[in-house]
Write a structure and sequence with these properties.
Elements (H helix, E strand, L loop, with lengths): L18 H37 L5 H32 L8 E3 L1 H18 L2 E6 L7 E3 L1 H17 L5 E9 L3 E7 L34 H11 L3 E6 L5 E8 L3
Parallel strand pairs: 2-4
Antiparallel strand pairs: 1-3, 4-5, 5-7, 6-7
Helix pairs in contact: 1-2, 3-4, 4-5
C-alpha cells in the first residue's frame, strides 16, 4: 500500500483459513480407506461362492441353494452399502434435500414392519408392534423416515437372540412424536453409546449371529432425524438389549 507520492505506508495481507479444506481432505481419505475394505468383503464372498458353483458341478441341490442364499444376502448388503454411500456423499456436500410433505407416520411404521416380517421370521425373531390407533400427521420426508425405521428395526432384528421379541412403540404429545424400537439383543457397552452414531462405527458382536454392516446406517439415520429437527439416541447395557428412540417435531 502506497500514498499518492508512491511512498510505502503499509501492507495488505490476505489470510485464507484452510482448516476446513484440510478437514474435508482428511475425511475423504478416511472415507476411501474404510469403504474400500467394506466393499471388498461382500464382493470377494460373492466371487468365491460363484467360483465354487462353476467349478463343482456335483454340488448337491441343497448346498447349491445355500450358496445362492449367501450370494443373495451379500448382494443385498452390497446394494445397501452403495445406497448409504450415495446418501452420505449427498449429506457431506449439502445436496440431500428432504421432500417435506404431510406424513401419516403410523402408516410408515406399519409398512416398515410389514416389509421386515420376512427377515424377522428368518432370524427367528418376533416383530411386535405396540402402536396406538392414531398418531398426528407430521411434515417430513416419508421415504427418508422409512429409511430410519428400516435401519433401527432391521438392526434390532439382526442383533436379537433367537426366539426373542422386537417391540416397536410410538407416542405423541402436543409438540413431538416419539418412536422406540426395543430388542433383547447383545446390547451396547455404556462407553460406546456416544459413538454408535459415528460413521463407520460398529459395536463388536461376539455372538457371530449377524453379518457385519458398513457402520453407516445409524450415522445416516441420525442425520435424517436431525434434518427433520428431531433427536435420536440409544439406551442400553452390554448383554441387556437396547432401545433406540427418536423424536420428530409436530410443528415446523
Amino acid at each position: 500500500m502506497v500514498d499518492d507520492g508512491g511512498t510505502p505506508i503499509g501492507e495488505v495481507r490476505v489470510v485464507h483459513d484452510i482448516t476446513r479444506e484440510r478437514e474435508l481432505e482428511q475425511l475423504k481419505d478416511d472415507f476411501m480407506s474404510t469403504i474400500s475394505h467394506e466393499l471388498r468383503t461382500p464382493l470377494f464372498s460373492i466371487q468365491g461362492f460363484v467360483q465354487l458353483m462353476l467349478e463343482d458341478e456335483t454340488l448337491e441341490p441343497a448346498t447349491r441353494q445355500e450358496f445362492l442364499n449367501i450370494i443373495h444376502t451379500q448382494a443385498v448388503q452390497l446394494g445397501e452399502m452403495v445406497n448409504n454411500l450415495l446418501d452420505l456423499s449427498k449429506f457431506d456436500e449439502g445436496k440431500l434435500e428432504l421432500e417435506r410433505r404431510p406424513v401419516a407416520i403410523l402408516d410408515v411404521i406399519h409398512q416398515t414392519i410389514l416389509k421386515l416380517q420376512g427377515f424377522a421370521h428368518q432370524q427367528k425373531v418376533k416383530l411386535l408392534p405396540s402402536l396406538p390407533g392414531m398418531l398426528p400427521i407430521l411434515i417430513g420426508d416419508a421415504q427418508r423416515l422409512e429409511q430410519v425405521l428400516t435401519n433401527l428395526i432391521g438392526n434390532a432384528i439382526k442383533f436379537s437372540k433367537a426366539d426373542s421379541d422386537v417391540i416397536v412403540t410410538a407416542s405423541a404429545n402436543d409438540s413431538e412424536l416419539q418412536v422406540e424400537v426395543k430388542d433383547n439383543g447383545i446390547g451396547i457397552p455404556t462407553e460406546a453409546l456416544d459413538r454408535i452414531f459415528s460413521r463407520f462405527y460398529q459395536v463388536e458382536d461376539k455372538s457371530e449371529r449377524s453379518a457385519r454392516g458398513s457402520g453407516l446406517g445409524l450415522h445416516i439415520a441420525q442425520r435424517i432425524v436431525k434434518a427433520h429437527g428431531g433427536r435420536i439416541w440409544a439406551e442400553s447395557e452390554a448383554g441387556q438389549g437396547s432401545t433406540f428412540c427418536f423424536t420428530l417435531p409436530l410443528t415446523q
